[in-house]
């Protein structure tokens, strides 16, 4: 019986990250924007129906989430 010569399979495996450094920076910025939105939502005054709590803070949070989606999809 003839023996088969098996050559070692050499694969050029590079440990590439899914995201670049810029993507991670943008994700951290988006997390900070969302955190600012939640801090605005907490508020310091006792008025529950303050325009900052009901209008500004949710818009800031949504902007932070939208920026996070942009940071993920950016190539």
UniProtKB/TrEMBL annotation:
Keyword Transmembrane listed: yes
Keywords, ordered alphabetically: Membrane, Transmembrane, Transmembrane helix
Domain of life: Bacteria
Pfam families (UniProt xref): DUF3098
InterPro entries per record: DUF3098 (IPR021448)
Transmembrane spans: 24-43, 55-73
Protein name: DUF3098 domain-containing protein
Native source species: Pedobacter jejuensis
Organism lineage string: Bacteria, Pseudomonadati, Bacteroidota, Sphingobacteriia, Sphingobacteriales
